[in-house]
User: Fold these one by one.
Assistant:
Number 1:
Amino acid sequence: MFNGFYPRYDLEARIQHTKLDSWGDIPSARMNRIEEPATTDFQSVMSGLVENLNTSMNAPDNLLKDAMMGSENVDVHDVMIAMSKAEIAINVATTATGKIIQAYDKIMQIQI
């Protein structure tokens, strides 16, 4: 069908280079880069995660109340989406809690 036809694309010119590329004049973002964490203690990180979990757990109830009051901005689909997000957040939180407890148990089993 296309005998002898080869499209002429300059593919190298069409590639978008990013900071992660290690060739050319662009320095690699993965080398010699140390970032300071935004929060330094474990307690503040965990309390922030719990607050976000609490907010996501309360969102379906608030949306359901608004939908029952007849608000035009809230639909039943929004309530169902919020419930799904809350369910996923609970699953992630329970999995993370289990992993943290397992890591703590392994650390406590280390003999010095």
Number 2:
Amino acid sequence: MGDAATVRQLDVVQGMLHKSVIALAIVPTNRSLTVTGRKAYSVMLHLAQRHAAAGTEGADGGFAAPLNSILRGFGATNSISSDAKKYIDQMVSTKVEWRPLSKSEQQFALAFGSEHKGEGAAAAPISDELRIFNLLAEVRIYKRAGENWVTWYYPPSIREELVSPSRWAQVDFAVLRRLGTYCAVALYEICARYRDSPAGLTSRQHWSWWAEALRSSPSSKVRAWRKFKNEFVAPAIREINELGDIEIELIELRRGREVEFVQFGVRKSARRPERLTPVPPDVTNILRGGKHGIRDTVVEELERGYGAQAVSDGLDRYERFMSGAGRPRIGNAGAYLRTIIANRARDEAAAGQGAAPRSSTHDVVEPRPAALAPQRRELEDAERHRRFDLIRQQFAQLDPDEQQEWVARVRDEAATAPVPSAGIMKRLLRGEWQSPLVQAMVIQHYARSELGDDWATVPAAEFASLVGADAGPGAG
């Protein structure tokens, strides 16, 4: 592997990040870590390693760089107190649990930690250690010559291992920048550790270990491997095999009919992506969407599906529409933006096939006429009931504790009514959400909170994408 100085020089020359094994299988414990945040963290590690190689790190152990070298999209006029802070703060405030990839790396971790000794006794061997730390110990964001800058510090006990790792995975930035989901980035970084392994196999771990290491949120409960595999792991494998410099294969080990342990086969791909210096993730569209109340995850999903330029064009059209006089309130800005971009993509596809595109006014969902024909009302009532049933089925599949949290929120709202109904309050206090008396209240509250105020009227295809169901009769 070579000495530390050689490692750092390789990082600079080859455009490869030598990411320490302690930063590969990490499990957020107190808040979600976005795919943008994880990519930015890798860029910061690369910059820190480059500074260390050149001897230009701060005398106090910190590393400094322009914010745009970590996250693209911050101009001199951007507010560092709001826009930049939410991303950098994510790294300072996110506590992660390190999961050793194997037993040998568990022992390696103990080697650079402090020794535990009893009074008057020799050092006793340590086992089953749990190590939790913040991704960054401290961050300073400031202006220098009109440009936003960042200085950051790593936790002292792991600083040297991050900056000058003795065991690492070679993470190719050309691959990293192309991967679009948190699961794909996390799985690629772990599997890259085994790129040159003679056996070509990751360690064997219980499926729950992999589910926790590959998910971005500590609050999302993984109840079944099959569902997690289909929704997250299988698409991540396809993405890595299509875009990466390695190819991976899922290996499931069963006890009876149930999957118990999981590992991955890893081999080098014939594909060799062009080695590039690290390009920081571009958050321009995310920042623009945030100003309209559109979640980061929605923008990231749209960029994966349609490309960054299509999302930028969609935001342009959204802003033009909202700047007009007398525009209706948009209940779910994310779903509305999805509609604009999807309609534009369909028009371009139709134009490419020789069909006449629709008028550009399709970007705007026109207000509904005050009087609807009876047949139209019947269709809309049927569609509303269909959507309600789908959301009710989704709610029924939640963990009972999570269901009770939603019931408690409805109960708190009902308690503020001028004259709360005794029957309603009684059933809410008991958590009887399936009672006909309160079911509609609970499900509609859940739908508004999770899907937006306009959950019953967004286009059928958009509703289907939100709940993971078939588009239904209104699709088209």
Number 3:
Amino acid sequence: MPDCIFCKIVRGEIPSRKVYEDDEVLAFHDLSPQAPVHVLLIPKLHVARIADLEDHHEPLLGRLIIAANKVAGQLNIKESGFRLVINNGENANQTVFHLHLHLLGGRRFTWPPG
């Protein structure tokens, strides 16, 4: 497993405020929240960015989305609404090169983003 910060969190080498975990997905509170609720969902399998995904990763993406839905319910934002964001590459402001979803909620968002 690579030595990225999210891989270290998966291995328990760096602590996190976990909100969800299963065999393939880990979710934890973002250290620099951009909304009242800001959780990161990561696959335990290291994939650097969404552009690196292949056909065999399809079930993993489904697991990430279902996990996000569960976390939204757990944190009481499922009915009021939430946003899922995946940044891909430097121009999209991806700062950690381990695929991750930002689950944002707890306030009204505007469009277009950023």
Number 4:
Amino acid sequence: MKKTISAATPLDDNQIRAEDQARVAALRESRGWTKRLMLLMTLIGPGILVMIADNDAGGVITYAQTGATYGIGFFIPALVIGGFIAYVVQEMTVRLGAVTHRGHAEMIWGHYGAFWGWFSLIDLVVANVLTLVTEFIGITVGMSVFGVPPVWSALGGIIVDAIILLVLRYRTWERVSLWIAAGNLIFVPLALISHPHWGAVVGAFQHWQIPGGFTAAFLFVVLANFGTTIAPWMLFFQQSSVVDKGLTVKDVRHGQIDTALGTLAMVVVALAIVILTGTVAFGRPGAAGYDIQQIIQVIGQRLGPTGQSLFALGLVEAGTIATIALTASTSWAMGEAFHWPKSINLPFQQAWRFYIPGLLSAFLAAGVVLIPNAPLGFLNLTVQVIASIFMPAAMLFLLLLLNDPGIMGEHVNHRWQNISAFTIVGLLVVLNGIYGLSVVFPKWF
């Protein structure tokens, strides 16, 4: 549905959201499995979007570099564990958004004041711009396979993002984004036609070991994989998406199912990429390392031009869907922090302050990617590591909010959720600390 505006009667996002909620209420009161299925299909969206967008271009490149450098081995079980971690974190944003009807940035500013509000906002915006750099790396590298110059592919990515964000209201924006996200599944058949050694895949769970020993380079890749599995933008995006979609406490269960389905899709695709590159590129001269363009060439040599083209298209899709999610995440956070109109339901003329920050972040990131001779592969991994460094602080705010009975009532965290979440924070802190030591004292590793 197109967003329209009249000078006399500006659109009210609360009214639009109320109409969506009324439609959901009518489906909830209906009987029969078809109505229940329609209710589920209506309510799903934020969880699938955030998880598939998490398999962004930076994630695809990271998984490809991981498989090419370290093979199947260690990272197959690690990615399954990463999926569990992502679900634990993102499920909390569903409950927080559905109970409070407030976005993540708005909650932090409202409960912890301007200092921590600015801290979390700067943390998010910096991380989002850096992550957007990896999305445009993916878009430009993927389109280069088809002979498209980087400047045109970057501009095309910005135009697609802007049209989807500015023209569509939330419900249509979400459905269009889900159709784009479905393209992420292209990596699954690519992994199958690479004819992997399935015994080695199963054996990775039976004999979990570090390939080549525990080194600073290996730890760098581990942190990069964590950074692409959970990132600060995901907290802000899913909670704000839940609010803009109009989910209520009655919809929490469907939100959890939505997040679980998204997690399953994320893990399957991540495994497929590692299996693909671990099969066709691992151990081949020139494939190991950070050069994604070299890895794509090896895929073309092993799977032919069609396989290479499909991988490139998957990379472009991953960058496109993540760009859509990241720009929305930035806009939602800025709108919530400064009390601007903050809904994708609103037209640009009425909510221009809401839309501009996200689009500006995309322009800035595209400009960085177009710098001549930039080390794109290494830059991608570095951005993922930075995301893992920023994540503990974002997690602590989330946990404080989820454990406040005055905010959450009966929907506060259960004991097992707190244990899981604090274990995740502790793991990230320990890994980041070890990595810091490896940088300061490289001879120790």
